[in-house]
# Entry
Amino acid sequence: MGCVKPSYIKNFAMELLKTHEEAFSTDFEQNKMLVKEYTDIEYKTITNRVAGYITRIKSKKSKGV
# Structure
């Protein structure tokens, strides 16, 4: 079973994907740097969760699921 992400993580990720979808990829480290650049989130754990969720979404889209 997967873990359930809080709605604020999903909201951050979806907002970023709406505005900057072409910038994100399936690479977590790159996505983490982009999340830091595009947002003013001050907590590392929240930044990592948002970047991880974006990475997961982009991976699913690339696989066609």
Q: What stands out?
A: The chain has a mean pLDDT of 92. The chain has one domain: 8-63. The helical segments are 7-20, 28-38, 44-63. Residues 23 and 34 are 8 Å apart (CA to CA).
